Protein: Heme anaerobic degradation radical SAM methyltransferase ChuW/HutW
Amino acid sequence: MQACACRRSRVMSRMDEKLAVYFARTGDDPLRTAFAMRRAVMPWRRQQAVPAEGMAAAWAQVLDAVPGSHRIAYIHVPFCANHCLFCGFYRNACSQDAMAHYTECLVAEISREAARLPAGSAPVEALYLGGGTPSALSAQQLERILNTARQCLPLTDDCEVTLEARITHFDDDKIDACIAAGVNRISIGVQSFDTQVRRRQGRQSSREEAIHFLERLRTREQLALVIDLLYGLPGQTQDVWQQDLRTTVALAPDGVDLYGLNLIPGTPLQRATANGKFPDMATLEHQSLSYRAGAAFLAAEGWNQLSNSHWQRTPLERNRYNRLIKEGVDCLAYGSGAGGLAGGHSYAIDGDLARYGEAVQAGRKPLAGLSVGDARQPARQRVTAGFEAGRLDLAGLKSLAPESCLQQMQYLTEQWQLAGLLRIEGSRLDLTLAGRFWASNLIFAFDALLSGDAVPAHSSASGGRPQQPREPVFLRQVADKEVVS
Structure:
């Protein structure tokens, strides 16, 4: 009996040691101190690239695959009037000739691929025009692209059709053309209303101009209006952030996104910060305080939190595309720089405009990459969607992951509960506000467990048998550790 207890203790210690890299710090304020950094979770993680020589045949199989009961579509417009310092999506400056040629290619790509879709294809429940800046196109170009999508793709009658837009150059003619072509949701990347903060990041319009534009857009009652805000921008103090929140609520949009600034490698802001040009750059602790302030403010105003970064004020805002993309449903993708998911494959479309145009004119899908997920991909998608929505039922993973992996997850979630990141109710995990802020770290950890990066499935000390649930060793030790993800 004593020998068995010793073996059990050694196994628990090894489990503790292997999983400790994913532990959260324990303390009085986990929102501020649970981890030293926020993990990035890439959508193509753990996928195997299809060799270039096999891509055409694999793509043909993707097109012939029968999708699930529903799916979404994405159209990319890779043009911007200027490169905002924080943006990692900028590709091409606006050029009338380039945008006209691109529109022709995009229409051809959508039309030709739609003809290949199997008869009775699953309906498209959400269509998203992103960028770049789709509103950089002319009213006629926007209307033509949208009408092509409506004519060629099997959109549902209540399809959510979103257009990303910026305040600059988005005039009434463009807005009316988009509405006439079926747009029922517009997302405006305001980032901040503070004139100085905006202009330091390359935004051209002032606070007053931004407010006037949104007030005018708000009169289109058939539209769901969504405002995107960024917290953590240089010069954006807590007072500025509170004013951004008050201004947003006063404008009464249907939804709002609160995103933390991410210094994407290679962006002008990242390079400038590395060179010391923004000494007032917000720390991660500053960002956590902004997230807390934003969540508290919107809750007090009666807004409903739909995901970790998104809030809803009215039923007009469904947030359908963003929810379904997290769930991993099939996503048809069109346009240079776009990315999609179909038939168990993720794919990227060539981001080089010249190569994109040449491929479309030659009758080829301009693929830059194609990859396929492994057997654990459905489990990863469920984890991502669950944590993004603020709750995950581990029981839903039973058929998707081995028992040993589920035991490791349970072990880890007990530590996270101790650290104040979530609450465990049976098999359900409910994220606290701190857990929502650090959700990408939780997804990252579960992804590692699903991929076998942590503790081995079985220990030789247990005779190859999975360990039974037990009280974790860290309940006594973790408070004395300096363990971060």
